[in-house]
Design a protein that fits this description.
alpha/beta; Rossmann fold; Dihydrodipicolinate Reductase, domain 2; 7 helices
Length: 244
């Protein structure tokens, strides 16, 4: 698989290494001098991974679609204000993207556990939900994209709306998210801790494989569809990929 990775930060480099390890041919592109990638640099990619910055996603997708790219994995966070613009670009160009604030497969399952916990605790008024997230000092967005998704899911279930959120930016931690439900008599907590970025990279490659397996509807697809197919795979490890 020939891939282009937009963004040469820690996640972009992790995806590049994981792709090389399995025999793919990745090309890692850093921030362009003019602020926008030249279309000629994007020609010929089976899949384009975006790990750049929130402000760059829409322009990157437009340039890549103009270069003939039709499959995208968007791993950047904080670009939700441009969702309509990105979706329109993809649909007009007959292109499909998988996008999520966190592409680690374990994280996707963690979010499902949060959904179920929020659903149950919403019936118990004495339990207050809260969220704590800790990332490296250099991480720009506060809260993280994963934390915002956790908050959205809890708020959709809980009668009091959004839970209390605490954010830590210190050290070099790749990511920790803790979701709690506290009552006078007890506290229940769910914790997700990333030890490195290999899980994110593995999920990004799984999303790329899902896009390549069969033609997908133009537009933005949630990572949950990829996870559903992975969970449906038989015990011998062969992937079952369904059309969407």
């Amino acid at each position: 698989m020939d891939t282009i990775i937009l963004g040469d930060g820690p996640l972009g480099r992790a995806i590049e290494q994981a792709a090389r390890d399995r025999g793919d041919r990745p090309q890692l592109l850093g921030r362009p001098a003019g602020g926008r990638h030249d279309r000629s640099a994007l020609v010929g990619a089976d899949v384009v991974f975006d790990t750049s910055s929130a402000a760059s996603v829409a322009g990157n997708v437009e340039a890549a679609v103009g270069a003939g790219c039709r499959r995208f994995v968007i791993a950047t966070t904080g670009w939700q204000a441009d969702t309509a613009r990105v979706a329109s670009t993809l649909e007009r160009g007959g292109a499909a993207a998988v996008a999520a604030p966190n592409l680690a497969i374990g994280s996707a399952i963690f979010l499902r556990l949060v959904d179920e916990a929020a659903r149950m605790f919403a019936r118990l008024a004495e339990f207050d939900p809260y969220v704590l997230e800790w990332h490296r000092r250099a991480k720009a967005d506060r809260p993280s994209g994963t934390a915002r998704e956790i908050v959205r899911r809890i708020a959709s279930r809980h009668p009091d709306g959004e839970p209390e959120v605490a954010v830590i930016r210190a050290g070099a931690a790749p990511g920790m998210h803790l979701v709690g439900f506290d009552a006078p008599s007890e506290t229940i907590e769910l914790r997700l801790t990333a030890r490195d970025r290999s899980g994110y990279a593995a999920g990004a490659l799984a999303a790329a494989d899902w896009l390549l397996a069969t033609p997908r509807r133009p537009g933005i697809h949630p990572f949950d569809l990829v996870v559903d197919d992975l969970l449906a795979a038989p015990a011998d490890g062969r992937s079952i990929v369904t059309a969407a």
